[in-house]
Model the fold of this input.
Amino acid sequence: MTHAAWHSAGRTQRGKQRMRNEDAFLDCPQQGCWAVADGMGGHQAGDIASQAVIDTLARLNECGTFEQRIESMRRCLQRLDRQLGVQRAHGRMGSTVVALLLEGRRAACVWAGDSRCYLWRGQCLYQLSRDHSWQERLMIEQQLNRQQAQAHPDARALTRAVGGREPLALEVLELCTRPGDVFLLCSDGLYQALSHCELGSAIGHGSPQQMVDRLFSQVLRGPARDDLTAVVVQA
Done:
């Protein structure tokens, strides 16, 4: 199986006010698999949890049909979720995950938490993933606007994560790719620091490495309090 048509680049960096980087990423074009994981901030061993997510995805078998690969990813992450749950007795240990699988012209975005997947297509930026956060839940269930939901004291709290309190429920979005598509996987430390327009302008042209460098340059001009990670995949 070859994925030579896809080009990618990834980068992660510790936030300016962080003691250690709790983000991790996977950039594996030869297997058509990419991912970003963000260890749950403020909890014990967030960096270990995020790296465990990436290590698990890196070991996935690329054999089988596309549907079987998605199911294999789901099973592996759910197994890790149970393992982290056992360790939770010694302190909470969890991570977000957003992963992208590509094969031919098929794509699948798989996620839990608030790390995101975006698609740049036809000069427009689309957010493919939907945050699993209290802010998002308040907007949907109580029909609050974004500003009202952001004011809630638990707005940033996650409603799903690998190693969270509830058994892991992954969300999956499948789509067909088109020539020229660009996917961006990123942690909240990156997208929180940039507007939707700034994200789009950064990944609208150039090579994946140039896009990643442009994103980081823009964020690092600001306070960059949180760890930031980005993976860009280009057709």
